[in-house]
Write a structure and sequence with these properties.
This protein is of the alpha/beta class and 319 residues long. It contains twelve helices and twelve strands. The two termini are 15 Å apart.
Length: 319
């Protein structure tokens, strides 16, 4: 019987991801799991990090997805070209890593994708709003959802990497319905529960200002449709009070209208004790809830908390 694997794309070669990945593999959360992992990375780069951390890690060379052994670590080598690591070389390396990873995922013998952080500025270059959207386009997905997950409270923005002056144009009843349907399905399938969902308004205090009334014309009608589908949903709530302790404990998920409306309070409450899950792709995709952290590269001081939580989620709910 085939053991379904977790594909891990390490991403930016100058990020702290290799460091925290090795720390996570040595953590009991992975030692007690049963799934094999396939690391897509420069083997030389990864071995150098193993030596820095002075750990013993038995890497297996990846050959194919059949007969992978439980709890084993396989590596798919993406060689880095010799010489100075220019931006062009780095981007070619990242692109090839994603191409290889997506090809493995298309074979549908995997549990999930974990990818390390990359610089949206230097890799995506404005062609995509973020890696969430990059993966959605690469897989032909039309309704991807960003869920920042913590078992106590999760958040999801209806719009993701959109300039604030264009957010109101993207708030549509149909989009809200589709995304919240996806969130509800995800919770029922993987966590076995119907989540209590709060929805924020767009404007301060959900008030009407000059121009279109987003709360009345788009958000409220979406909530009414979703209630008819027996989804446990309330709102719209004012975003400045929904995250108060007495309010947020009533909900599993807070759905906001734009990125920082929900991610800023989420990170204030939980720090980086959360994971970024993309719903709506042909596979579960998880990434740590932090960036490449170039300033900490090579210092061996980065904490693996978010990646440990990613492994815990897969182990508990997916694997």
């Amino acid at each position: 019987m085939k053991n379904k694997s977790v594909v891990i794309i390490c991403g930016d070669p100058k990020s702290t991801f290799n460091e925290i990945l090795i720390k996570t593999i040595k953590n009991k959360v992975y030692k007690n799991s049963k799934f094999p992992i396939i690391i897509i990375c420069s083997e030389k780069l990864f071995q150098n990090e193993i030596k820095k951390q002075k750990v013993k890690l038995n890497l297996q060379k990846f050959e194919n997805q059949t007969n992978l052994l439980k709890n084993k670590v396989y590596i798919f080598d993406i060689p880095l070209k010799k010489g100075k690591l220019s931006l062009i070389k780095k981007n070619e390396y990242i692109k090839k890593s994603f191409d290889v990873g997506l090809n493995l995922l298309r074979k549908k013998n995997t549990l999930a994708l974990i990818n390390g952080p990359i610089s949206k500025t230097t890799f995506l270059k404005g062609k995509y709003k973020g890696i969430t959207e990059y993966l959605a386009l690469k897989t032909g997905s039309l309704n991807e959802v960003m869920l920042i997950f913590n078992k106590e409270l999760s958040v999801s923005p209806i719009t993701t990497h959109v300039p604030i002056n264009k957010v109101s144009q993207k708030i549509k009843k149909e989009v809200i319905i589709k995304k919240i349907n996806n969130i509800n399905y995800f919770y029922k399938k993987f966590l076995g529960l119907k989540p209590n969902i709060a929805v924020t308004g767009l404007n301060p205090h959900c008030e009407t200002f000059a121009g279109k009334n987003i709360e009345k014309d788009e958000i409220l009608p979406a909530i009414k449709v979703l209630k008819k589908k027996k989804i446990k949903i309330l709102g719209p709530f004012s975003a400045d009070t929904v995250f108060l302790k007495e309010n947020r404990k009533k909900f599993d998920v807070v759905v906001g209208m734009y990125h920082d409306q929900v991610l800023a309070p989420m990170k204030t409450i939980f720090g980086f004790d959360a994971i970024n899950i993309t719903i709506g792709l042909p596979f579960i995709r998880i990434t740590p809830d932090h960036g490449p952290n170039y300033k900490m590269f090579g210092l061996n001081r980065s904490k693996p908390d978010s990646l440990i939580q990613a492994f815990s989620f897969i182990k508990k709910y997916v694997g």
